[in-house]
Amino acid sequence: MNSYPPELLTQLAPVMFVAGLDPPPAFPGTPQSPPATPTSQQQQDPFTLLTLRLRESFLSQRKPSIWAAEKSKTFQIIPVDKAVRFPPRKLQPPADDPTNSAAHSPLSPLTPSSPLFPDGLIAPIWIRKHTNLVPSVFVLFLRLFELPPHMPRSPLDPPDVEREKEREQEERRRDTELSAEVAQRKKSTSERGIKLTVVLTASRRMLDDPSLDARLTYIRRQSGLDSRAALFVLSPVSVAELNDFVRSLQDALYESAVDYYTTHSKRVRRKRNRHSQASVSYNPANPNAIRLRPEGWTVRYEYKMACFAEFRGEVEVALKHYQDAYATLVIMFGSTAILPPRTKRWAEAKVLADSINVKVCKLYLYNNEHGLALSYHTTHMRKFSDFSRGWGIGEETFEFWSWMARQHRILAELLEQGTRSTLKIPSHRPPPAALATANITTPISGAQAQRGVFELDSMQSLGLNPSHALQHPGFYYYMAARCTEKRRERFLLLIEADGSTLAPGYVNEKKVDHLTIILELYTKSYELFKKYSPINSQNLNQGRLTLWIAYRIAQTYYDSGKFDMAVRFFERIAKTYRREKWGSMLRPLLSTWYACAQQLGAVELSVKLLIEMLGHGTMDNNETYGAEDLVKLLKSTSPSTDAPLIVDLSESEPIFDSMVVFWSPEVKVGEAAAFQLSLTAPSNVDISCLPITSLAIHFTEDFAPLIVRHVDSNSVPEALTRRVDLGHVSTADHKKEDVQTDLRWKPGSKFVFTGTMSSDVPMVMNVSKVVLTLEEHSWNIEVPFDSFTLRAGSIPIVKWLCSLDPVQYFPIAREIYSTVNVRHRPHQLLVSLSHHAPAFLDEEYPIVMDITNADDRDVAVVVDVLLQPTDIDHAVNHIVFDDERSSGLIKGVSFGVVPPGVNVLKTLYLVNTGAAGDRILDISIQSRTMPKSSSSGPASVSRDSQSYPSDTSETLQTLTVPTVTPITISYDVGYRRALAERPGPADLALYDSEFWDDREGGEALVSARMETMGPYSLDVKSAKLIRHDDKYARVLDSAIDHDDDASFPAEYLPGDEFSDICRISLAPDEEYDYASESIPGPGEYEITWRRILPNGEHFALSTSHFPLPSLRPPSDGLIALMSVPPAATLHVPISMSLKIRNLHPSRSANVTVQLEPDLSDAFVVSGLRSGRVPILLPGGEEELIWRLIPVECGYAKVPKIKVMDRRTMSTGEIESEGEVVKVVDVRWDRRAARDDVTDARRSIESLSGGGGPAAGVTTILVLP
Asked: What is the topology classification, in CATH, of domain 967-985+992-1107?
């Protein structure tokens, strides 16, 4: 930015003059003292200290700068003297100039003494006038007069009237003088419309004086100060309070400053309108009569209005006026009649146009309109580039590129200053596709509006014009450096051409140090590119461009003769170029690097660079460095040390195309593996003159390197493909004889080195590297390179050389061809698993594992067994193997060392419980070879032993064992009501904890039927019922406990059955939920058995447990139980009883009983015929008894009894007899388990429920 006047670029802000804050004068001859300590400051005059602090605070508010985007009410504050004078506003025209009768500004083009006379546009001095000479606000600091305080001798003394009168007179006189001084300054400021503000400094005592207000009013009136923000009083305060005062003072005066510049804008607008309507006075025949054209006046006034708007902080208004001024300037530049090229006014207008362009770009950037700023700057460069071609300053001149570099640099400096403040360089990465799609299809409203704007901008960046994509400052510094390089090239061409001294600007251009400028620009660009490069980015373009800039810096150092600095850059850049294989960029770098090394006399570096350039071949230009140059250098120089010079080409372009191919991908230990190593020379470089003395082929680390030495051949080989036999290489050969052959490659020729390899231990064999040795004079150079390297553009074709005459190849199709795996011979183990499927639940199922060693070596065998988890419900399984028990994995069961031809047996037991289904076993047999054992039997071996060789093998087998149930059991459960007499409510036995109350539950009859399953017979040793009585259920008796016959032990064939029946007493408590709960079975059947194989062999005893079923007793509501003897004797009386029970938990019962005799009855009845039973409360019971005398023999029917519940006899207006209550014969009382769906507590059982009719009908056998 130093190329332009700073006044044209500086950010304009309101100007404030501050007078009366001059530092105290120093005594003559007194040296400058150091800053006062706090103690000396306290002893200093408080008003002097206040003046110094105020001056410091004002000066720290705002500094003139080019970038100032903050919108705050701050001024550009300039300290001035109290008697400062303003420049004259108007100058009277000369008396001899009749054309200008009006007075004009000294800087007007109409004033003959003006630097712009007669046709100038605008001068930087005009902006300097409004920024340094004329303020918008004038602040005057004055001291308010105060007499020293009078201290009376005694507090009781009366006030001294005379002294007070003298004090008032003196204060009035001093106030009058102060008012006159203020009035004089007020007159000068009022003439220019400048706001005058007076700040009176007074002591704190004065602030409390009651006469202060009157004095201030007198001063304001006498001096003619405004009533608003014109007079302030300030006393000595702290620094923080002073800063607050300065800020509040600026806030109070900012509006006045805006009004001042608004007035100027209105005045300039009126002038612009007046000139736009006036006629053009231009007479080409009279040059003395040339005046500024209307276009020039438009530029002048638009620029002034833009500056005044910038003073006011109105960015949009200033931007509009700057653009209008620029547009008119472009029109003026379009006509050479208005602005002839290479004239003074043309140069001034060009500087003004460039400055306006910077202003417009800066104001756009203030509003974060980055694309508009860059577009405007690009358009400016394009327009004036077109103008330059018309002016004869095109791309062929250094002036054009100097101007282009200046434009790029000023934009870079503007962005750099902005980024130090508030400017953020936008990121042009496109948003994710999903996010962009969502933003397109989803409406944006409300609080998402602001975010939506930015997302829309991001989406639009997918099609962003590159000329609108603002980059960071480093990019524009780079462009400025490139333009400066073009400038230097055009200048050098001009020097070589004839008549160069006649070119415009030639003398000044000779003074320019172009290379220094280029280095400065490239260095700034390099630093900024490193700053803005993402740290963890997969996009490498930024890093590569940074390296390219570093390469340009190195090239510039080379052009300027600083070869050591160039070499430093080349070393760092070449590392990345080699690693990323940028051959096209590395080749010219190496050439320049080699030229630097020649200039520095670095012989070894020159040798390394020449060898590396051999791999890159020739360049398109005439500059070539080949093998001849390397040989000449070796013959004419000597190394600095006797040690071999190692040239590492691991990341560089190789000299040879090398490839290793093995014929077989895998061989056994001791077996030979054939390989071929091919080295192909480049076709565009002749390396036959290289002094190659030997070629060292390095294999896997266990092999000694093989040396191939050069022997001169008498005959010149014409074949392009030659084969060299290397013989056999093994790990046992620690020193092999060297192979001799002619190691001279013609362009494009190939050497194929063939041989075989073998190893006594398992490994991966390959050719690790090849070392080429060159010896010439006193030089010994070693060039190591990888066994598989390809030059740029080479296509890897994997093939095996079959014959030389003719040359034939066999293609190798596998992926891994450069290595061969050496493996042990597999172990010959025979594994058999014998068992008798299926397995039964609850038994230890034996699986016999037989391992036979069919190998000729001793083998140590270790077995792992994994029982896979199963998805079968309630299945719990485990395995037992060699005294180890596990539900999952048994690891490391040793079978010992098995000699050849010996077999070893071990039994694995599988135990299954729960449900039937398949069980899966994974068996791993691991073996390793052992030294020959002296004993004939197997020896014990540890799994973790480290003393054995690593010849291991593993065999995997999966065994699926079907599992079935040996015995199935089915239950049939019936329920009977309790017939025992119910104890009364007052019976204390009810409250005994051991009292068994089965009134609600009754008895359960459980019938169990056991059936043998599976394909094998079972030897059942015993079967018994194990009781687990609890508080709800008890086993009363079981038939299996009283079985007197010898049922067990016995052999049961598949399908045989045996059974048992038991009685269980049930006693649920009152809180028992019949609808959802069940009573666990109070016991289980335990059956001891074992399997019988077809050959009569028996397995070990096993025990199975079958729990009794859960009991779900049905519930009763109102029920009648009839009890009669099963048989009777003719004419002998018997009793018949009827128990009526109300088991409903909450309802009472109104029961009627009616005996319905029939003529066919065979009994004479004595008892109740028809009657009502007392009200039965819930849980109540009533018993009725009849006496019967049989009168006939045989099966006789008992008289019918009808029981009714009349509790719900009334249904509206119709009366019914009630509901029938079921009568149950207790001899045949047997019920099924309850149904969960129905109500568990019915009041009256329906006719379909139970096992008999509603009216009790039963028979008795009458004997004679």
From this structure: Immunoglobulin-like (2.60.40)
Which pLDDT score, from 0 to 100, does residue 33 have? Answer: 43
Residue 90: its pLDDT value, please? 74
User: Which residues have CB under 8 Å from 249's CB, separation 6+?
Assistant: 139, 197, 199, 232
CB 201 within 8 A of CB 142: yes
Residues sharing a CB contact under 8 Å with residue 1239, sequence separation 6 or more, in sequence order: none
- pTM of the model as a whole: 0.66
Cα-Cα-Cα-Cα torsion 1089, 1092, 1098, 1101, nearest 10 degrees, comes to -10
- Please give the Cα distance from 237 to 18 (Å, whole number): 19
Q: What angle do CA 687, 690, 694 make, to 5 degrees?
A: 115
Q: CA triplet 183, 187, 188: central angle to 5 degrees? A: 125
Residue 652 in 3-state DSSP? coil
Tokens at 60, concatenated: 């720290």
The DSSP line for 348-373 is HHHHHHHHHHHHHHHHHHHTT-HHHH
Residue 876 has pLDDT above 90, yes or no: no
Domain boundaries, the chain: 1-24+45-89+105-147+165-260, 643-823, 829-930+950-964, 967-985+992-1107, 1118-1232+1256-1263
Thinking of the domain 1118-1232+1256-1263, which architecture would CATH place it in? Sandwich (2.60)
Q: Check whether 1253 has a pLDDT greater than 50.
A: no
Q: What percentage of residues in the chain have a pLDDT greater than 70?
A: 85
Strand-pair partners of 1181: 1141
Give residue 623's pLDDT band: very low, low, confident or very high (50, 70, 90): low
Q: Cβ–Cβ contacts within 10 Å for residue 361, how many?
A: 24
Q: What is the 3-state secondary structure (H, E, C) of 935-982?
A: CCCCECCCCCCCCCCCCEEEEEEEEEEEEECCEEEEEEEEEECCCCCC
CB 725 within 8 A of CB 737: no
Counting every residue written for the chain, the total comes to 1264
CA distance linking residue 21 with residue 842, whole number of Å:
110
Nearest to 189 by CA among 146, 150, 139, 245: 139
pLDDT digits (tens, 9 = 90+) for 454-503: 555 554 545 667 777 899 999 999 999 999 999 999 999 888 876 555 66
Q: How confident is the model at residue 1075 (pLDDT cuts 50, 70, 90)?
A: low
CA distance 1190 to 1134: 8
